[in-house]
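Need a sequence for this fold. Nothing fancy.
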């Protein structure tokens, strides 16, 4: 996989370390609606540690003796982290859940609602991440760069987590799509298709970011024929470049995840997009925001520990690690963020 490029890359890399551990990487899911307090569904605000969302669902499924499909959830959260998210079950299990105990799962609170939680029922995710080995000067640089990115926009790449711990999944995805590998398992096939689509999106975004850099622009360069999305999720291709609406962040350019039943760009934007398209792919296609704008950035520096905690909110489906890459001016991999046994950073706490 080629390097993810960023518009606001620093002249000199900012060297810091972060680790995906329960104490250093925290995620809070932000609900997209207010729960009514009445209804046939029980909404659980839960905290999990060192578990995937699927692991957690399986534990509740076994405890309640119900199919996993009967448990609603809004999004998949990191395993190697402390994460808080919402799930839903039938309200008839309310009394039973009062006795629930698991060392890696805690029910923070519950409330009733007339609707179950469904995939996508979240507005954003808020992250709190510890950055290690940060000196006083770099602490200031990190905050300055972070706020600049929040103002100008962050390329909305899929992060390294999307593609597994090595490039094997990308290779398998391409082999399957091109007919060189037969995959019978439906879930694995769907997973590999999503990796294939995500790889093409990232390659397209990299090309557009490089065009922006070559044009010496400080914000993502839009083109005639780009497809934009508004605040309500409606897609459009304006006849003239919507410069004013783009500057006001009312319209955001999107990129293609190839497949069927999806709008494709036009004119100059399409000339670039078609290089990263696959019009023969029969799976559902999508449009994804090309850029996002991190919000509510907070930085707290602990000089004695050379530790900077950075907190921020980003839209659902976006990657906190991509924001950190843009700040640092370099790419990370799963190997980079996995702490070694008895790591020195743990000893400094």
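Here you go.
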């Amino acid at each position: 996989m080629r390097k993810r490029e960023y518009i606001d890359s620093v002249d000199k890399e900012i060297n810091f370390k972060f680790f995906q551990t329960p104490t250093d990487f925290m995620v809070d899911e932000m609900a997209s609606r207010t729960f009514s307090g009445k209804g046939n569904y029980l909404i659980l605000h839960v905290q999990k540690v060192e578990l995937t969302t699927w692991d957690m669902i399986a534990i509740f499924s076994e405890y309640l003796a119900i199919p996993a499909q009967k448990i609603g959830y809004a999004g998949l959260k990191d395993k190697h982290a402390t994460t808080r998210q919402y799930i839903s079950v039938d309200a008839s299990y309310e009394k039973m859940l009062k006795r629930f105990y698991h060392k890696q799962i805690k029910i923070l609170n519950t409330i009733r609602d007339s609707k179950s939680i469904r995939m996508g029922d979240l507005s954003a995710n808020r992250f709190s991440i510890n950055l290690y080995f940060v000196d006083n000067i770099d602490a200031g640089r990190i905050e300055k760069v972070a706020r600049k990115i929040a103002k100008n926009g962050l390329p909305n790449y899929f992060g390294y987590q999307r593609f597994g711990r090595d490039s094997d999944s990308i290779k398998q995805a391409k082999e399957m799509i091109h007919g060189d590998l037969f995959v019978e398992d439906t879930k694995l096939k769907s997973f590999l298709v999503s990796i294939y689509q995500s790889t093409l999106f990232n390659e397209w975004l990299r090309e557009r970011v490089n065009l922006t850099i070559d044009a010496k622009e400080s914000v993502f360069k839009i083109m005639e024929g780009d497809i934009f999305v508004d605040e309500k999720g409606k897609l459009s291709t304006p006849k003239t470049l919507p410069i004013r609406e783009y500057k006001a962040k009312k319209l955001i350019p999107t990129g293609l995840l190839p497949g069927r039943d999806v709008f494709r760009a036009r004119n100059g934007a399409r000339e670039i997009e078609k290089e990263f398209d696959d019009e023969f792919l029969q799976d559902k296609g999508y449009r994804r925001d090309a850029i996002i704008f991190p919000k509510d950035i907070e930085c707290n520096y602990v000089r004695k520990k050379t530790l900077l905690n950075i907190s921020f909110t980003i839209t659902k489906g976006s990657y906190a690690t991509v924001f950190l890459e843009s700040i640092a001016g370099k790419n990370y991999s799963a190997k980079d963020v996995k702490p070694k046994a008895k790591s020195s950073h743990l000893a400094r706490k």
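For context: The chain has three domains: 33-120, 124-142+295-347, 157-289.
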